[in-house]
Design a protein that fits this description.
single chain, mainly beta, three-stranded antiparallel sheet
């Protein structure tokens, strides 16, 4: 599957990123929830990280 990845494809815009830091901090820190946690928990990453498993956090609205 060949999918294009936008230039803003970082953890901050990824659907798997769960922010755990306060809004007052300069850089958001969060958990990556892409894969199951290990014995030490979810992997921690910063907002500017990128692992290659990025998926858009945008969900289109579908009217029925």
């Amino acid at each position: 599957m060949n999918r294009s990845v936008p230039t803003n494809a970082t953890c901050l815009t990824c659907r798997w990123f769960n922010i755990i830091s306060d809004e007052d901090e300069a850089i958001f820190v969060g958990d990556c929830r892409r894969h199951a946690p290990s014995s030490t928990g979810w992997p921690t990453t910063s907002e500017s990280g990128f692992c290659g498993d990025w998926q858009s956090d945008y969900t289109p609205v579908v009217r029925t």
